[in-house]
Structure formats: C-alpha cells, structure tokens
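ok, trying the design again with the full structure, not the truncated one.
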C-alpha cells in the first residue's frame, strides 16, 4: 500500500474530480442523500399541504422536488419545511464525514477501508459534525443578544450618552468578530466534516480548528474554493453529459417506431415529467448559465442523442404502463441523485485536501504520516490478544500439544 504523494499547494485541488469519481464515495453519498431527501420530501409536502394545496396539484407542479417558497404560508409551515431542509443538510454533512475518512485512508495507501467502516466512524463522531456549526451559530447569536442589551442601555438618558463613546471600541471589535464569525460559520459547513473525518476532533476541537483555518489561511480558503468551484461545475457538467447522452441513446433506439415507438415515448415522457419537471429543469438551466457567465466559461456540450427530453403528448396510462413508468422514474431519480452525489463527492474531497494542505502549511503537521484512531484501536486489540495469551499458560501448552 503506497500513500499518495501531495504537493501541498493548489495543484492538489486538481486531483479532487478524479479522486471523487469513486463508487465507494458516491454510493455513500447516495445513501445519505436518499435518506435525507425522503425526510425532506415528507416535511416539504406536509408544509405545502398546510397552505391548502392538494397532493395531486403539488406533485403535478413540483414533481419529486416540492418547496414552500412562493406560497403564502403560516409560521408553522415554514418550521416544518426548514426542519426538512436541516435534516437533509445534516445527512449530507455526516456522509461527507465518511467520505473524508475514506479519503484519509486512501491517502495513506489503504484502499481496503470499506464503506461499512466509514459508517461505523460516522456513528461514533456524528455529534461533533452537527454540534460544531451549531456552536459557532450560538456564538454569533450571543453577540447579537449582547449588542441588543447594550443598545437598550444606550436608550437610558444620561447613562447611555456617557457609556456609548466609552464602550465604542469594544462594540467595534465585537462587530468585527461577529462578522468574521458569520464567515466562519459558513466555512464550518464545508470544513467540519473534513476536520472530524480526518483529525477525529470533538465539538470544541472542530470549532477551534475552523476558526484557526479561517484566520490563518484566509486567502487560500477563498482562492482554493474558487478553483474547486470551477472544477466542480465543469466535472459535474461532463458527468451529467455522459449520463444524459447514455439515456438519450437508449431513447433513440427504443423510441424508434421499429421497436417500442410511441409506447416507449409515453413511458419515458411520463417518467421524465415526474423526475425532471419543466420548472426544475428551467431553474437548473438558469443557474447553470448564470454560473458559467460569471466564471466566463463558454462550456455547453450538445447531447449526442437529444431525444431524451423530447416532448410527447401524454395520455391516460394503463395499470401496467403506470407501474412501468414508476419503476423507470425511480431509475431516472437514482441517476439524477448520482450526478448530485458526484458533485458533493468533489466538494467533500476538495475540502478534505484543503484541510490536509492547511495543516501542513500552518502547523507542519503531516496528516498522512500520523497514526489515527483506527490504527491505535487495531494495535490495542493485538496487544490485548498478546497479553491474554502470555498471561494464560494453558493457551501456550494447548498450542504446543497441537
């Protein structure tokens, strides 16, 4: 097992799309995304139903991706909706931790570290992944509450007039720290899974590492993430092009009148309308075009076979056709989820590589060469087995007799 060699600079970020293209990493993110999506779908659908919209109209308008924005909803509807969003985000964070753990083992040269091992690691450390961003958010809220208290004191006649200029310097530095903490909070959503997955930190350690990274490597944090973002967009575009072209080839062959013809077109169009509704596709195309324009990238590859999204007039389906369409919809959904999970895999691998680079540059800490908790656990098991055999002579006598 030969460890991967890194340059410990921006060149390593270019490795992210290649390393992220791993069935082990993508499948882990698919499972986490699927669990989070199901809970999100339930919560978002319930929140929309509370506005008076029925389930049939909801599915017809949003397909498999309902969202509450654009509705006149009560406060409890928004709580239900954002609870689903938080659960989905939580599952992405914890599964990204598993991906970071797999990457660490891969950097060490251990390609036999399984997804099951990564899930066991997640079960052990998931609290830190969730509580670290919440802790940083609590710090920000605490500073806002303190500012409200001091602002209320400022309303008191004479006392407020005197204390405001005397304490202004403290208000100023407190405001700076609050603004920077907001940036740190968003950074924590990116780096905490890597910190926990690679460094095995607890909640407080993850908070400290996040602040340390942001303040010591501020310029690299922004520049490396801009580079990673460009690589992510291009790589996902290529990956989705391959997937959609492959699906289009199937549509081109099976949709020919010599084979299934209109029967396939009907099943395909119905499935596409559920998994990739027009409103969602238009939104994705809008954001894709917007991002490419901002990055000054003219990168739009036409599909080899553009029959996948060919409009076909839908008719009433029979029971067999409905069942077949639902099965095909599930397959299309998994393909779409795979594309999304590959993008998250690139993001997770890229952030993990950044963390390894930052620790090397700031603390001269070579994470790849240091031992981790798994190595120490294995060593402890071996030591315990040796001690038990050494302290029990009957085991040695039995071995000699055999």
């Amino acid at each position: 097992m030969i460890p991967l060699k890194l340059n410990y600079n921006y060149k390593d970020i270019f490795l992210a799309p290649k390393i992220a293209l791993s069935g082990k990493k993508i499948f882990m993110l698919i499972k986490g995304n699927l669990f989070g999506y199901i809970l999100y779908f339930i919560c978002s659908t319930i929140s929309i139903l509370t506005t008076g919209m029925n389930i049939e109209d909801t599915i017809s308008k949003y397909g498999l991706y309902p969202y509450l924005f654009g509705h006149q909803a009560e406060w409890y509807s928004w709580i239900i909706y954002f609870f689903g969003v938080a659960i989905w985000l939580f599952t992405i964070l914890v599964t990204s931790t598993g991906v970071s753990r797999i990457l660490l083992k891969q950097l060490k040269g251990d390609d036999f570290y399984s997804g099951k091992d990564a899930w066991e690691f997640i079960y052990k450390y998931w609290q830190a992944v969730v509580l670290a961003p919440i802790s940083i958010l609590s710090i920000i809220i605490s500073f806002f509450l303190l500012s409200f208290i001091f602002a209320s004191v400022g309303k008191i006649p004479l006392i407020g007039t005197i204390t405001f200029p005397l304490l202004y310097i403290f208000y100023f530095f407190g405001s700076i720290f609050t603004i920077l903490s907001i940036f740190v909070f968003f950074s924590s959503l990116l780096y905490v899974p890597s910190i926990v997955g690679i460094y095995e930190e607890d909640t407080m350690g993850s908070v400290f590492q996040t602040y340390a990274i942001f303040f010591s490597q501020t310029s690299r944090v922004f520049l490396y993430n801009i580079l990673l973002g460009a690589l992510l967009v291009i790589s996902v575009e290529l990956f989705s092009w391959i997937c959609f072209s492959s699906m289009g080839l199937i549509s081109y062959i099976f949709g020919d009148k010599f084979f299934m013809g209109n029967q396939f077109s009907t099943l395909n169009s119905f499935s596409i309308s559920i998994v990739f509704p027009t409103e969602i596709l238009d939104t994705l195309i809008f954001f894709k075009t917007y991002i490419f324009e901002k990055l000054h990238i003219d990168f739009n590859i036409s599909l080899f076979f553009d029959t996948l999204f060919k409009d076909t007039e839908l008719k009433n389906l029979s029971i067999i056709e409905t069942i077949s369409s639902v099965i095909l919809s599930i397959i299309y959904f998994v393909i779409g989820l795979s594309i999304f999970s590959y993008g998250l895999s690139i993001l997770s691998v890229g952030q993990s590589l950044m963390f390894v680079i930052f620790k090397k540059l700031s603390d001269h800490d070579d994470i790849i060469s240091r031992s981790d908790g798994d190595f120490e656990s294995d060593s402890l098991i071996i030591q315990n087995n040796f001690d038990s055999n050494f302290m029990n002579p009957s085991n040695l006598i039995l071995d000699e007799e055999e």
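Keeping the full-length input from now on. The two ends are 35 Å apart (CA to CA).
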